[in-house]
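tl;dr need the bound structure. longer version: we got a ligand (S-adenosylmethionine) that a collaborator sent over and nobodys looked at where it sits. i said id run it. heres the input, straight from their email, havent touched it
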Amino acid sequence: MMLIDNYGRKITYLRVSVTDRCNLRCIYCRPEGYSIPRLSHEEILRYEEILRIVKLAVKLGIRKIRITGGEPFVRKDIDMFIKELSKISGIEELTITTNGVLLTKYLSILKIAGVKTLNISLDTLRSARYKIITGKDEFFKVWTAIHEAKKMGFRAIKINVVLLKGINEDEVMNFAELSIKEPFYIRFIEHMPICSGNDDLFLVSGKDVREFLKKRFELSVLNEDKSTFYPGPARYYKIKGAKGVLGFIDPMTSHFCNMCNRIRLTADGHLKPCLLSSHQIDIKSPLRAGANDEDIKALIIKAVKEKPMFHKNNNIGRAMSTIGG
Ligand code: SAM
């Protein structure tokens, strides 16, 4: 089976948000004072419900699953869920996006589950600034987790950095130097004004960062041909002699919708065909009303068929933590 949308894109990737809760309050995602209604226990999909949806999605052609949130590790019994997920045959890649604060404890569970790449969000290399950006003094826990993961031999440790004008853009050089010393994938992500206004005061464009770096380093492009070795929306570069690589994900200044291969399942049980559109399909109500497998599959196909060609409106009025970044 294969899931193909109306524009010929093959959809093989499902991002599953297991919770809307997070242990951080990043200034651009869940700022203090910005009220995000907390989902009640009942509103959140139960693990058995998620597993059923994933199994059916895999039957339809999904091959890659990413667990995300909120912060996935704050949900109770996440280890049990990861274990169950890893037993589903047909999943070729199981991965996770985390802020890393609680990661160390779960590294061996992830290894056993066959997770090979980890996406860890870290917007600064300075502990005092980490507290300013995230509201919590947890920098060293994340730093320890990254180094433990390296020791344990995860194939790719991706450090996701959202660059924010006037906040951390002065650390581009430090991150670049980290990519020289360590075998990490450091990925600069453009800020998306998804729950603020459309005037993005935070935006630092990937192009500006590349130009800045090109003046200082010899950068070679690794995946201009979109080779399968570096799949996905990131463009990868390497500084001459570096152990790691630098990636750029530029959702704001250069659309990569033509190569989008994903849909999302939110913690409150909606399928989202596109991150940057408010359109979503309720899968939880039919599921709880006794829908059979064919009905559920039809909803997954509907979500794929309703993927827009391009994202238009970026202000979708919903914090990333409630969708699943
Ligand atoms: N808690 C996990 C984490 O921190 O990686 C997973 C969820 S978090 C919402 C996923 C990613 O979305 C993080 O890397 C975060 O920096 C990013 N993010 C949140 N709001 C964003 C925004 N407005 N623009 C760009 N990235 C954003």
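gonna send this back to them w/ a short note. The pocket of S-adenosylmethionine is lined by residues 22, 28-29, 68-69, 71, 97-99, 121, 160, 162, 189, 191-192, 194, 320-321, 325 (CB under 6 Å).
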